[in-house]
Write a structure and sequence with these properties.
The protein is of the alpha/beta class. The chain has eleven helices and eight strands. An eight-stranded mixed beta sheet has the order 1-2-4-3-5-6-7-8, with helices on both faces. The longest helix has 21 residues, at 209-229. The chain is globular. The relative contact order is 0.18.
Length: 348
């Protein structure tokens, strides 16, 4: 699906749940959408969640690795039959990220179960995993689904991932292919980090220094806390010389994540490798003015050739923002659109 000059995408062949994205005139910049979307005050109507620790890697001399999830369930008598949305955050996000909470409130009100997943060591889960998170740990999502299916007899799952989380859920769907679990019904990626090498290069462009600096500071602070928790596993050697996110990926993520370097990491974990193999209904929402997420022509071609995938590229929207003035969107077009997509294609 392309976009028109007015910033609306062509919906002549879209499903009934699809509506144009029309940003406010004063928010037609990708940078403004991204920045305002991250600071705009929001209120959420969510009950206290049930916390779940799910083991994703067996115990070593440093202990087992767990992911911490916050779950919002429908009543027990209907729980197993309802669509269960697992929401995965982006780089340096958590189960309390604004977009995670926003999607959770909408989905819970619509009758879905909601699971807000923290990647390893993220959010309040730092102490529960000696291993670090990265963009390739799609198996963690698969294990989470399997455990919830076993414990609660859940029959229908939908995965929603933002940015790096989008890479995780799309990678999982594609790498499992038709052999994937029958309870995975649909997948959504919002501003997904599908082509890591291209997006890393874009992040380091001069106009994106604000984002790169923020990500790097948060990554370094988190890793320093990791060193304090597991001094026998991680070292601070060379940490003060890291100046870019790519250097962090080279010296920390690759070193402790089992990759030979940043390029090897970017290549091996990119969900674009499996874009042609995604077997379930999938929606990808991407803004052409996203400051640092880039999708290569080859990835677009793979997605376009996959009949199970709907790629919607809007002219405006920024990174994970898609701020709208349409009354039904309540300000957040992507949240409304992805929920309507899932209710139409995956529920039941």
């Amino acid at each position: 699906m392309g976009t028109t000059e007015e910033g609306r995408f062509d919906i002549t062949e879209a499903s009934p749940w699809m509506r144009p994205f029309v940003p406010p005139r004063f928010l037609r910049s990708g940078h403004l959408q991204t920045i305002v979307g991250g600071v705009l005050p929001r209120t959420y109507s969510l009950p206290k969640p049930e916390s779940q620790l799910i083991e994703v890697e067996p115990s070593t001399c440093h202990g087992a690795s767990f992911v911490l999830c916050h779950c919002h369930w429908q009543p027990a008598e209907v729980r197993s039959e309802r669509l269960t949305m697992i929401i995965v955050h982006g780089l340096e996000g958590s189960s309390s990220s604004r977009y995670v909470l926003g999607n959770s409130a909408r989905a819970l009100a619509a009758g879905c179960n909601v699971v807000r997943m923290n990647m390893r060591s993220c959010g309040d889960g730092e102490e529960f995993s000696p291993t670090i998170y990265h963009a390739g740990r799609s198996e963690d999502v698969a294990i989470l689904m399997a455990e919830l299916a076993r414990i609660y007899l859940i029959r229908n799952f939908a995965l929603v991932g933002y940015s790096m989380g989008g890479n995780l859920v799309l990678k999982l769907a594609g790498e499992r292919g038709v052999a994937g679990p029958p309870y995975l019904k649909a997948v959504v990626g919002v501003s997904p980090l599908m082509d890591l090498a291209a997006s890393s290069a874009a992040l380091h462009e001069p106009q994106n220094r604000l984002y790169a600096s923020r990500f790097l500071n948060e990554e370094l602070n988190r890793f320093r806390r990791k060193i304090e928790l597991y001094p026998g596993l991680y070292s601070s050697r060379g940490l003060d010389k890291i100046r870019t996110v790519r250097q962090f990926d080279e010296q920390v993520v690759a070193r402790y994540g089992g990759f030979t370097g940043a390029d090897n990491y970017y290549c091996r974990v990119a969900s674009s490798n499996w874009a042609q193999d995604i077997p379930v209904p999938t929606l990808i929402l991407q803004a052409l003015d996203d400051p640092f997420i880039r999708m290569t022509p080859d990835t677009r071609a793979k997605l376009a050739a996959n009949p199970r995938v709907i790629l919607v590229e809007t002219r405006h929207g920024g990174h994970c923002a898609f701020l709208s003035l349409e009354p039904g969107d309540a300000g957040y077009w992507a949240e409304r659109t992805l929920l309507d997509f899932l209710l139409a294609t995956a529920e039941g």
